[in-house]
Design a protein that fits this description.
GO cellular component, one term: plasma membrane
CATH class: Mainly Alpha
CATH architecture: Up-down Bundle
CATH topology: Growth Hormone, Chain: A
Number of domains: 1
Subcellular location: Cell membrane
CATH superfamily: MFS general substrate transporter like domains
Distance between the termini: 40 Å
Structural class: mainly alpha
Number of helices: 17
Organism: Ligilactobacillus ubinensis
Helix content: over 70%
Protein name: MFS transporter
Number of strands: 0
Strand content: under 5%
Membrane topology: Multi-pass membrane protein
Length: 387
Amino acid sequence: MTTLRFQSFVLVSLSFILGFSEFIIVGILNNVATQFNVSEAAVGLLVTLFAIVYAIATPIISLLIGKHSLYRCLIFLLIIFISGNLLTALAPNYTILAFSRILTALVSGAIVSLAITFGSFLAPLDKRSSLIALIFSGFSVASVFGVPLGTWLSNYTSWRNVFWIISFLALITLALVAKCLPRNLRQQKTLNFLSQLKIFTDNRIKLGVFLPALNMAAIYVAYTYLQPLFSQAMHFKTNTIALLLFTYGFMSLLGNVYSGRLADDYGLKAMSIVFLLQFFLLVSLPLTMTNRYIGLFAIMFLGFLMYLVNSPAQMFYLQIAENKFPQSLVLASSFNSIFANLGIATGSAIGSLLYLHTGLSGIGPGGAFFAFLAIIINLKLSQLNKN
């Protein structure tokens, strides 16, 4: 049990570092834009770029892993991840910065899927959903501690120092991975790596992968521009924003922890209510943010809802893979990350367009559209599961 706890800690550390590296752009948007003399929208599009590369590269790398040692693949991908963050810290211009984010995004999704695969192998069956929720909680911890602390450090020293710290922490995590994770894990052998794609012949998978995509698209229309929402729409002072980002991250952490309980008790059946709450909070955001405290409550509640879909969706994919497509286990482990990042790319891109053409007032209703689609998809999926 002690070994499993330490291994769980290492897997959570992995997701924390990955989340810290991915999310921090939201907190340092202004500082990066100022240094490279580009617009905030241009820096915001780095979120979109990261998510698109993440979503495209993750399934390809997951397929290529095939029957290879999961341990060796994870070590190799972590070395590339560290290199990408070091390059970000050293980037002399916006072009090199964008390239470094591409390099980091290339391997981030595959690292997540490998962490989840290790977790599903290591945990007893009755603790699997809890461990998967714990692994995902690393992303929430990154929002709670990493983003606000990184924002504070960026404001008072340099945003580059944030990526030096990320690189250092990733190097420590690499050493822990090398020491404690089993070296003999592989997924079931297949005649050819494309046979892993057979999981997409299942109609439940075809529908189910839309849920994390639409969830994150709805949230990220607003989340990408949290800093302007706090400062411009609600008129909070600059030195308060780091605290507000901390609070938002804490709410998402609570949601992520509760996500494991939802997976055990209700599965995806509870998600229609979650998406309905998202819809009402987002569609009413132009009104609620006219009062800083009501608007703040709405945004923080959105933070709580942000990751509730994680564990129910991930357990849904893994159960289908284990029962019908065991050769696709690593690929199935990556579905939540792949399609969530497609949603992030879509939501941040739509958010950028709305911010440019309608200002902050169009952001909430734009996100509500995706929440409405998620309600329809989840209801259809529930109907399909009954048949």
